[in-house]
Amino acid sequence: MELPLDWRLTSGAQQSVLRTLQQTVGFGRTITYGELAERSGAFEAADPEQRALAARTVGSIMGSNPISLLVPCHRVVAAHGIGGFGGGETGLAVKRWLLTLEGALAPTLDWAGPS
Q: Alpha carbon of 80 to those of 25, 48, 49: distances in Å?
């Protein structure tokens, strides 16, 4: 059974990116900002500069996600690392905790969740 979502607070590229994330990146999976930009089809990114801009735009979209409890933006990561998450260091700790909880990151010996 699928949960019906109210997308009225989103539009355009934001809605396209968030719908793509919700529909294609399941529990325990991750995708990079750039891959999500490309997969969503919301951006024309022919050259490296345009692709980089599209990836940064996806990062901004993740930060403005009005339904983040249902469209899990913590699953979107940087090409070479975990990337960002709202709330600075605390937000990153939460992102790391959520990804570890889902099995996308291996737990460390000191893993106890966000502080």
A: 18, 16, 17
Is 73 among the residues known to form the active site?
A: yes
Q: What are the residues whose beta carbons fall under 8 Å from the beta carbon of 114, sequence distance 6 or more?
A: 90, 93, 94, 96, 97
Residue range 56-78: average pLDDT?
94
Structure tokens at 29: 């999976």
From the list 97, 26, 17, the residue with the least C-alpha distance to 60 is 17
pTM: 0.89
Q: Token match 């983040």: residue?
A: 68
37, 62, 71, 73: which one is catalytic? Answer: 73
pLDDT of residue 34: 96
Residues 6+ apart with CB under 8 A from 89: none
